[in-house]
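If it is no trouble, might I ask you for a protein's amino acid sequence along with its backbone structure tokens?
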Amino acid sequence: MSEDPAARRPLWITVVLLGLSVALIAVFLLLGNWQIRRLAWKQDLITAVDERAFGDPADLPAQFDPERHAYLRVSVDGDFLDVAPILVKAVTEIGPGYWVMSPMKVEAGILWVNRGYVPPDLKDPGQWAAPATPVEGLLRPDAPGGTVMERNRPDADRWVSRDTQAMSAARGLDGALPYFLDADPLTGPGDWPRGGMTVISFRNSHLAYALTWYAMAALFAAALVYVIRTGLKGTG
């Protein structure tokens, strides 16, 4: 008759394995609880952003806080400056192209306005309609440097992100605000650039992650109970 491997195992090894198992179950539960807290935070964020984006337009904030003012709907009056716009690479629901960024002089400084999208064959400013003021739209934090895949190249006038400080420097402007304005349509429905294309979407998978961690804890606990009961029967 073969000897039971559990009978040859030192007691301290069994105790350590049981302790590690209990610790893993606790970790899985803590991770699940953390995801539930993240779920509540994300739901509050979505609610807050909806209230900002679809409420009555406000004035520009005296002190911009990305946590409080991202996607805030504002109405701004000022003067578009007579400098060359900056084209920022864009991928939209109607295809690739560019965001048209133009600086506006407002009381607080230089506000870069995203006038909207143009396709590659319409990137000549002579093909665009003149923007109207005042401008209504959503505030967005600037994006310094570029993207994960590509960097801005101010020296070549190649842009992949809305970096307001670098754009102002490239056009010889001072006093750039640390945010830009995604404008609603500034012209007629058939004109370019096409505004009002801001996509407000937040990935919210926290409930699925929480259920996954809880399921792992439950399965691990069930396996642990099975092993313990099997061991007790073997010693009976």
